[in-house]
Amino acid sequence: MATRPIHEIRRGLVKVRIWRKQTRSGVRHSVSVVRLFRDGDLWKESSRFGRDDLPLAWVALKEAFTWIHRNP
Fold it and tell me: How many domains are there within the chain?
């Protein structure tokens, strides 16, 4: 079974996923950021962002930062 993110934030076509990993030093979080786009009938993800995606990515990352600090 694949590991799933513990939380996901979506702002427009930008998606931020928060992952939690237990280590010897304690819980660690990591974050992945993608932009959704359509290729015909299929939705796909890209790690490239256009100028207009950047404000949405900034908002989503700021929310992820806050979420991680509130959910240790």
Answer: 1
